[in-house]
Amino acid sequence: MSFITKTQRISPLVRQLFKAETSIRTFQTSFKRTSGAAFEPHTNLLSSRTSLRLPSCPEQVRFSSTVHENEPPSTDKKSTFTAGQKVFAAGALLSGLTYYAEEKLSQAEQEREVAQLLKYADEIIDQLVSEMPVGTLDYKAREHITGYLGRRWQHENLEGKRKFARGYLDFEESVKIANLGRSGPKVITLLQAFEAYVRCYHQIEKYTEGDLIISDPHLTMIPSFIGYRAHLIRDIAIYSPISDLPREFASLEKLESLKIQSRALYQFPPILGELPNLKILNLSNNKIEVIPDCISGLKNLEVLYLSDNSIHSLPDKIGDLPRLSSLSLSHNSLEKLPEGMNRLQELTYLDLAANHFSHFPSQIFGLKKLDLLNLSHNQIQRVPNDIETLPNLTALFLGFNQVMSISTRISVCQKLGHLSLRYNKLTSVESAIVNLPSLNCLVLDNNQLTEIPVELLSHKTLTRLAVGNNPINCVILFSFIQEFLTKKTATLSLPISLYVKMRDDIAALPEEQRSRITFDKEN
């Protein structure tokens, strides 16, 4: 498919541009030059707005890939050089499109259209670099693309004094582009992305084993060449600002672990549902809002981290992950869970902190293997009787809620060792909590407690207690502290503000007892 024909599919913006008067001559000339080894920059190509219009004839400009389905690209340094030349012409094209968007469209239209154009810029780069032969991505080839070409381009088109590092296009020294106005930075962005793409392409080519870590801040898409390493790659970590994955990702049948923390994913990539052996998936720190049904295709998934996104709903099919044992959904916008959650019978770890739950989510009751549950930083007001359906719970975090009451049925959770209830509205401590046989850490600071159960003094397994910042009389509290430290070898956690009030009394305690008092910073 020709470059222009492909471009026509983008949006009404491009169709409008096709109706405008065009300046074919500059583009014809520049693209003809890509067939030769020499590159003589056309000053007007990047410095004149009149030359940034689209050619009207689709047949005049073509990008044809030399990558074949069953073989890697051939070794040809000239092709590498040619691909580098093409990206500069592509930069001019994108500059013209984005300039039009800025000048002619409303703010809302601009945001939508420019986003489409920048996404298309990535497609251009993908097409260009697919022409680049594997064997030529060495230092000399990179020098051709980002060194010689870059310096010539800068010399012809950039204002001011510049410092050129050998083999590197110094973009930070070259942000002023003659006569391009606001569209100039987008050309720079495209060229930065191209250079990052070349580096990533080279990185994948050299990959043999271990973790494949992709972290270039200018990389906005993964090279399709990644498919040629499908038989080797098992672990990938991506920190670059990519917004999608190439179709070739589906060929990574041996991939077991994938981390994408790009802050640029706005949707769950559907291609991930086609990775049958994936065991660990981490998409934290992105901008995903909805998880699609295709997630049910990950039948071997054991760990799923989706924290720090904008997720407001989960599909019922999330329950079709039979091996899932760890699920993190903290710092999202969830108000409820799907009924399918109770089918995750292998789940041992569930983090739902910092969401919008106003009730204890009933969909998790009955998860017999659940070991750790984090519901802190929500708006939960009570812990219901159904807590007894989580018999293997060892850690429960309910801090920073609005909890006023806890069901006595919590006593069924005989393995519960860590219970955090800080920053709630409790006025008393249920005996069911005090008598939990495995309790070793109880956090009750910043509530409305007026007394502390004396039964805690004789609790056999309790090793850490936090009771600061409650409306308890200081004399009564210090008396409890003395007795607690005398009868037990446990650690007592107090807020710094309480230490200020009781400094002299605490200083009078035996050194061994003082050593078991920790002072926490107050949130």
| Shape designation | elongated
The averaged pLDDT comes out at 72
What about the largest sheet? 14 strands, parallel
By secondary-structure content and strand pairing, the structural class works out as: alpha/beta
> How much is the radius of gyration in Å?
31 Å
Number of strands: 16
Helix content: 25-40%
Task: Point out poorly predicted stretches.
Answer: 1-85, 131-184
**Number of continuous helical runs:** 13
The separation of the N and C termini measures: 59 Å
Order of helices and strands: HHHHHHHHEEEEEEEEEEEEHEEHEHHHE
β-sheet strand percentage: 5-15%
How is the largest sheet built, in terms of strand order? 1-2-3-4-5-6-7-8-10-12-13-14-15-16
SSE topology sketch:
Layout: H1 3-8, H2 12-19, H3 24-33, H4 43-47, H5 77-104, H6 107-130, H7 139-157, H8 184-206, E1 211-214, E2 235-238, E3 257-260, E4 280-282, E5 303-305, E6 326-328, E7 349-351, E8 372-374, E9 382-383, E10 395-397, E11 405-406, E12 418-420, H9 431-434, E13 441-443, E14 464-466, H10 474-487, E15 491-495, H11 496-501, H12 503-507, H13 511-514, E16 517-520
Parallel strand pairs: 1-2, 2-3, 3-4, 4-5, 5-6, 6-7, 7-8, 8-10, 9-11, 10-12, 12-13, 13-14, 14-15, 15-16
Helix pairs in contact: 5-6, 5-7, 5-8, 6-8
